[in-house]
Amino acid sequence: MTKMTQIGGASALPLNTILAGDCIEVMNGLPEASADLIFADPPYNLQLKGELHRPDNSQVDAVDDAWDRFDSFAAYDRFTRDWLAAARRLLKPGGAIWVIGSYHNIFRVGAALQDAGFWILNDVVWRKSNPMPNFRGKRFTNAHETMIWASRDEGGKYTFNYEALKALNEGIQMRSDWVLPICTGHERLKDDQGDKAHPTQKPESLLHRVLVGSTNPGDVVLDPFFGTGTTGAVAKMLGRDYIGIEREEAYRAVAEKRLKNVRKFDKAALEVSASKRAEPRVPFGQLVERGMLRPGEELYSMNGRHKAKVRADGTLIGSDAKGSIHQVGAACEGAPSCNGWTYWCYKKDGKRVPIDILRQQIRAEMAERPN
Amino acid sequence: MTKMTQIGGASALPLNTILAGDCIEVMNGLPEASADLIFADPPYNLQLKGELHRPDNSQVDAVDDAWDRFDSFAAYDRFTRDWLAAARRLLKPGGAIWVIGSYHNIFRVGAALQDAGFWILNDVVWRKSNPMPNFRGKRFTNAHETMIWASRDEGGKYTFNYEALKALNEGIQMRSDWVLPICTGHERLKDDQGDKAHPTQKPESLLHRVLVGSTNPGDVVLDPFFGTGTTGAVAKMLGRDYIGIEREEAYRAVAEKRLKNVRKFDKAALEVSASKRAEPRVPFGQLVERGMLRPGEELYSMNGRHKAKVRADGTLIGSDAKGSIHQVGAACEGAPSCNGWTYWCYKKDGKRVPIDILRQQIRAEMAERPN
DNA sequence: TCAGGCCCTGAATCGTGTC
DNA sequence: CGACACGATTCAGGGCCTG
User: Fold this and answer.
1) Do B224 and B315 have their domain in common?
2) Residue A111 forms part of a structural domain
3) Which residues on chain A are in Cβ contact (under 8 Å) with B137?
4) Which domain holds residue A203?
5) Between the CA atoms of A118, A123, A124 and A128, what dihedral angle is there, to the nearest 10 degrees?
6) Are B337 and B299 part of one and the same domain?
7) CA distance A19 to chain B (A)
8) Which residue minimizes Cα–C1' distance to D6?
9) Which band of pLDDT confidence, cut at 50, 70 and 90, is reported for residue A3?
């Protein structure tokens, strides 16, 4: 499967192989202007301190590997500038790069990209359908990661397969936010002890969308932080050539084994059944945020016997209970449960109208503009 | 409605007003450590092309594109550093900032925030339910903007109304991606010609979530790029004090008019689901003193696997540990910590009942007859 | 074979008040 | 200021076992 391509008669391109070593040195040893796309998942510099436990007291297996530790932002910036410069040299004139990161590092990476002369085309948000919650209730659930897509140069003739992405998205233009699950189950590679082989393995679905959208069959895709080789695996399936660079022996071994078992797709296998979505859940609070109901406004029970007042956080306060629309409704009726959506009404032009009408309005909007 | 607050007897804080002028100069004229929250929607219109001049006024030569770019990014970075420094000076020790932007500027803003000593808490993606499509089909639909939420200092005791946000989201922890429509319809302010009064007016729903989540009633919220005053309008509705700074006369005029017509929600509506941490502390010993539990009585663990005996001083003695309800619970489970209130049960009419019920009884009494 | 319950896990910058 | 003790805190999904 390994191909060697002559570039300008000078040096050869080691296609479909994993190169060992520091990515900056290795990249500088490859011929310039030889890659169509670079996908990079660099260390995030998470700066984790203590241990973290779930509410059930189990411990979170954190990313504390040596390769993710940097002495300072300045050190991380230096590292970023250096690998970006080496990467840019490798790109063909119409080439492009994707870099993924979290709020710990992505702002520094984005600024460095711009400073290096890359031209940002989009930032794309990977919205995780199943992220790890925030266990201490001190912040928002960290439910997304950010990818930056940039061309080598301003005005570069980058590849963008608009129609293919639109097809992937059920006929609607692909947006800058992608909802995809994290990598779990059988796709998640394990070592001999049954532990995860790599702490941050990316899902193939993510790379699928990246490569379908911004490369063509036969293109050369380089990944300087290859890890367990998701980029290579998806590139191979899609009929692209890959070059991986990975410093850690253990990751290279896992990736080699993985890639050996990957088969190029036939067309038919490509279509992933679009998961049909259940009726989207609409939090009652959204009616308040959107100004459809106002804090302080009175709601009336369907039977006219009870009323309650809307609060700014989307809870109700009744005569002797406060909480969600369901909880207060149940309390009013002395019932074990209650569907607040059909129980409560608001006043519109003097008439009582069920609040479920408002939920239906929001759902109608969501149906018109899905995703 | 305008309030003036004396800060340290020195200078006054012009609450609920819109200040005219350059935000950096105006901020530097206000007393330090006087704002609880800053919300900023800075400009990113860089004029990267055309009539660009270097700081020394020499015209940029079209040949050295890289320098051109460097110059303009450098100028934007300088501007960003300056207004962030002025903003940080204004924040109280437990203060925090939100900044919103797009891929054109947010990476530079994020890096500058970190460099200035702010501590990023989350990046939050505003996912637009109705974005403008990409008409030329050359990129992804730009369907989101990014907000960065950061505390003034690492370790700062920032405000986060976890329970209120969870309530807004129908009982599920609020995530870092928010789906909200853009500002249209009646909410979108128009000028006398019927054109939109401001090109980037933010929806009130966005500010509602920001302010409910990261401020308390009576807090001071400052917006250095006030525009048409969405921050002020939502702050006023929610019973927060605002300070707006805006350079453009036309925007100030629109905002003044808007704010005059905004009404504060009534008090009960502003009350928000409280966190358990805010509830009064009840020593376990009080249950024994009051005779709700008797010395010698057995307690049983929630899972039924352990038991312990109550002692007269409000400690427990288990099979192989003695101490507080928390310590003995942790020892039984071999866990690093344990909430004894929810872990231990007592027997009532043959059934196991969590001792937390008894704590709730005491708290209810305290609320009825406060000391 | 299927449904239901239990267990485990995921790029995480995840306390606070009192003495 | 540090040390110590209290006690608050999770969502989605996959695997595996049992009935």
Assistant:
1) no
2) yes
3) 160, 162, 173
4) 17-46+63-270
5) 120
6) yes
7) 31
8) B326
9) low
Q: What was the pLDDT predicted at A157? A: 97
Kindly give, in sequence order, each residue whose CB lies less than 8 Å from that of residue B238, ignoring residues fewer than 6 positions away: A295, A312, B208, B211, B212, B215, B217, B264, B265, B270
**How far apart are the two ends of chain B, measured CA to CA in Å?**
35
Nucleotide nearest A52, from its CA to each C1': C14
Please count the other Cβ atoms lying within 10 Å of the Cβ belonging to residue A63: 15
Q: CA A294 to CA B237: how far, in whole Å?
A: 10
- Is the pLDDT score of B247 beyond 80? yes
Give distance CA A355 / C1' D8 (Å): 34
Lowest mean pLDDT among A269-283, B129-143, B150-164, B353-367: A269-283
- Chain D bases closer than 7 angstroms to a protein Cβ: 5-15
Q: Render A288-325 in DSSP notation, one character per residue.
A: HHTTSS-TT-EEEETTSS-EEEE-TTS-EE-SS-EESH
Same domain, B323 and B358: yes
The number of folded domains in chain B is 2
Task: Judge: A296–B109 Cβ closer than 8 Å, yes or no.
Answer: no
Strand pairing report for B220-223 and B241-246: parallel
Mean pLDDT value across residues A90-117: 98
> For strand D, is any atom closer than 7 Å to the CB of B155?
no
Token pair recorded at residue A27:
């990249």
* CA B259 remoteness from chain centre: 22
Percent above pLDDT 90 for chain B: 81
Where does a domain end: A270, A302, A337? A270
Residue of B nearest to A366 (CA): B129
Q: Which of A176, A339, A361 to mutate to test the interface with B (most CBs of B within 10 A)?
A: A176
The CATH number that applies at residue A164 is 3.40.50.150
State if pTM tops 0.85.
yes
Domain boundary among A245, A270, A295: A270
| Nucleotide C7 C1' to residue B59 CA (A) | 68
B269 and A104 in contact by Cβ < 8 A?
A: no
Is a pLDDT exceeding 50 seen at residue B208?
yes
A110–B122 C-beta distance less than 8 A: no
Q: What is the pLDDT of residues A315-356, one digit of tens each?
A: 999 998 999 999 999 999 998 788 899 999 999 999 999 999
The phi and psi torsions of B50 (rounded to 5 degrees) equal 85, -125
Average pLDDT over residues A220-229: 98
